[in-house]
Specification:
This protein is an all-alpha fold and 240 residues long. 74% of the residues lie in helices and 0% in strands. It is built from 12 helices and no strands. Helix 8 runs antiparallel to helix 10. It is globular.
């Protein structure tokens, strides 16, 4: 469903993406994929996703439908509204978490939802900051909401969200029910703090952040912190 929405969003934004210094290399604005084909495939993918989630029950199907509706609202309206554009992206990640928990029929951890929200906001505001820097002249021509942002304003938002994220994860790793039954979880905190600071360094000093997934795939220190975090989590659960 995410892939289908991305295709539909790229179809709608193809004219703006064609003049974007980075997004113009995407298949649709570059002319390698026709908008009609992309739109058909996007609708088909969303339909397949909805049908697959329906096999897990009505609750799972409702969450999936809510995800598609939210993403559709983002594509049509929300991405043009300051602050709500990033909050709607974060809400989509929360729905992904809920969908996973509903699909395997386990309770949703409120700490997981809080950390997901804050991390998504951090990445989203970092992405808007990157767009402002790349589109230094007339950024609103590409995305109307960018006219209502500034680098200084986004830096303030990132600082607030970043502080809240670290505090939320610190409380989770030290005092949550999961931490109580697995005391070693607190050992994962340094890797999270370093990983967040490393990403912040890449945003400010290397002017990255436009594509968080590419940053993760290309930056070795960030990959190392993620690997060490994973090892620490496994150790905390294995030797609890």
């Amino acid at each position: 469903m995410s892939s289908g929405i991305y295709l539909l969003n790229d179809v709608r934004d193809r004219k703006q993406d064609a003049v974007h210094p980075e997004k113009r290399r995407r298949p649709i604005p570059r002319g390698d994929l026709s908008p009609t084909t992309a739109a058909i495939v996007g609708v088909v993918l969303c339909g397949i996703g909805l049908l697959m989630t329906a096999t897990r029950g009505w609750t799972s199907a409702l969450v999936a439908a809510g995800f598609v509706l939210l993403q559709g609202a983002y594509t049509l309206v929300l991405k043009h509204l300051v602050l709500l554009d990033v909050f709607s992206i974060a809400a989509a990640f929360i729905l992904r978490v809920i969908a996973g928990a509903v699909a395997i029929r386990v309770p949703v951890s409120e700490w997981l939802l809080v950390c997901t929200l804050l991390l998504a906001l951090f990445l989203g505001f970092g992405k808007r900051r990157h767009e402002l820097i790349v589109l230094s002249e007339n950024p609103g021509q590409h995305r109307r909401a960018l006219d209502h942002y500034s680098v200084a304003f986004l830096d303030q938002l990132i600082s607030i969200v970043l502080g809240a994220l670290i505090v939320a994860y610190a409380v989770y790793s030290a005092s949550s029910p999961t931490a109580t039954s697995h005391p070693g979880m607190v050992a994962t905190l340094p890797f999270v703090v370093y990983g967040v600071f490393r990403y912040l360094y890449l945003v400010h000093m290397k002017h990255l952040g436009g594509s968080p997934e590419l940053v993760l795939l290309q930056d070795r220190p960030l990959q190392a912190s993620l690997l060490l975090w994973f090892v620490a989590v496994v150790a905390a659960f294995r030797f609890a």
